[in-house]
Known about the structure:
The structure holds 2 protein chains of 2 kinds.
Chain A: H1 2-41, E1 46-60, E2 75-89, E3 95-109, E4 126-130, E5 133-140, E6 145-156, E7 159-171, E8 177-191, E9 216-231, E10 236-242, E11 245-249, E12 257-259, E13 265-267, E14 273-287, E15 291-302, E16 307-314, E17 317-320, E18 323-334, E19 362-373, E20 385-397, E21 402-412
Chain B: H1 2-14, H2 42-51
Amino acid sequence: MKKIVLAIGIYCSLLHGSKAQQVAYSRSHAQEFLNDSTEYSKRKLKFEEANIVTGYYDQDGNNSAITGGIGTEKLTDLANSLELRFSKLDRYNRTHSFTADFNIDQYTSASSDKIDPLTISSASRKDTHIYPSIAWSVKDDLLGTTQGLAYSYSTEYDYKSHGFTASYAKLSKDKNTEWSFKGGAFLDTYMAILPSELRPANYPSGAHGDQKGIDYKPRNSFNASFAVSQVINQRLQVMAMIEPSFQEGLLSTPFHRVYFTNGNETVEKLPGTRFKLPVGFRLSYFMGDNTIIRAFYRAYIDDWGMAAHTANLEVPYKISPFFSISPFYRFNIQGRVNYFKAYGQHSTTETYYTSDYDLSSFTSQFMGVGLRLSPPGGIASLVNWNSLEVRYGYYSRSNGMIGHSISMSIKIK
Amino acid sequence: MKKVILFVGLCATLSSCTVVKEYQKSRINDSEMELSSRKSEKFEQAFYLYREGASGANGGKSGGGCGCN
């Protein structure tokens, strides 16, 4: 018995000694590497990666808010995005990252053509949505902190937005836990285009050359986000996030029509403030050698009376280390806001009213598949072409709206 | 209030997990394991934001832009 205990003791000592040596070696090697790379790359702006994303979205339904909750919701959207990321080391070995992101959407909306039924083309029947952003962050590996600032701009025919974001993240010493905070403000301005039959006398239509004297209304959003992510074990990591948001200003859409029970017509009217409280939870689990489970759940409430639950499950399967196929399924259920009623159901005595089916009770499902290719030598023998993702999804809502989405993402490093 | 307590409790629980060393993170560091949306999901998040009443807590955009069509 003594010999067995002695043998186990010696084995454990050797194992511990060897591990200690390994850790010591890793640390000294890492330090050497750090010193070498510091010497080499100090203060040089380095290209990190470029991401090109292209997407096409098509939807159809029969509950347009522009025509009071009935009528076509046909919409197509072709979206393109280019993101460039650079980095630079400063004298304290902190990594500065610079990101520039340029996005452009070109969409057609059949319902927007109904703002002014007398003309063929209304203000935003076809429109271009441009939204660039720039971001800067500083990562300090010694302190485990990352701080960042970002600015974004968004412009459509009748809408402008300026966004400001500040973020802070702290990584634990063992690098298994990260706490992060983000605060943002989006200051938007809305051109109040009204349906043609509801415009006061001499009120401009909002079309090109007819905007003099039109109202511009503010819509501001203030968001905060608190998140904690944790590595649980060698295969599992999770994240919890809470993101309260407050909006104020013109939260209704001025060209959305509402029809009352007595047949009269007006424009949508909603409260001037809205407080939203979503709580999200993410999980990634590496099951076996080839299968990964990515799960997301969100619970949501707001002070307009809406409650919603969203769950998403994606199961990437690695056919090879460099090629994976990812079927996914998303389910969302939401209850209507207090101010929603269908076409011709609102009473004239109500204070607020909308027939926007995006704010109604429904369930929605989104399902599809993604492919990801990331060979070590690059795609098509181009060493800088790091990865390619293609994704298709089918969207359906219980009130009859359907949509198709296809997107492609290219990473160049 | 219960939800807040649950959230704080969850955070506290997560903070007390086993320490995983950097050299043990080959699976955790796999690109499919990222706790964020894929780049190719960027535009999907935009139509969720516009076509559904709930938003936020998913790492996506939660303000700015109209989506009123």
